[in-house]
Design the sequence.
């Protein structure tokens, strides 16, 4: 879990969490390359932030290969702000997005995942954000 950074302390605390789940819906860190997997995200903000913030949230997941391999955005989703304090959504990483059985010295098949929550209003990104690091994944 991470805390959402707000520019004004009056907005109160906010929290952001992300959990990687396999195609059976169970938390996992070893995943099959031939099936999609999901990142379940949830976040909450204080009542003043819910009242005053407009615009939209963007939730994005990035992977970085441990050793040689891809470093890229694997899933993203936009969620409108609706005046509520609690949000939840699911990012889906498509099957085959990360390589299976990579050739030696090309990719280890091990990745660190980072999930980022950002806020936009009037098409401009604000400094309201949160970052959840991990877990380390093995794609088999």
Sequence:
């Amino acid at each position: 879990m991470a805390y959402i950074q707000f520019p004004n302390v009056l907005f109160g605390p906010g929290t952001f969490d992300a959990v990687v789940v396999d195609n059976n819906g169970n938390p996992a860190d070893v995943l099959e390359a031939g099936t999609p997997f999901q990142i379940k995200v949830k976040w909450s903000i204080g009542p003043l932030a819910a009242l005053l913030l407009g615009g939209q949230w963007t939730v994005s997941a990035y992977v970085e290969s441990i050793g040689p391999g891809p470093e890229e955005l694997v899933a993203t989703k936009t969620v409108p702000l609706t005046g509520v304090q609690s949000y939840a959504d699911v990012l889906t990483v498509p099957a085959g997005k990360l390589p299976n059985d990579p050739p030696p010295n090309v990719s280890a098949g091990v990745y660190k995942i980072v999930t980022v929550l950002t806020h936009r209003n009037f098409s401009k990104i604000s400094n309201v954000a949160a970052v959840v690091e991990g877990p380390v994944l093995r794609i088999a």
DSSP finds one helix and nine strands in the chain. The chain has a mean pLDDT of 90.
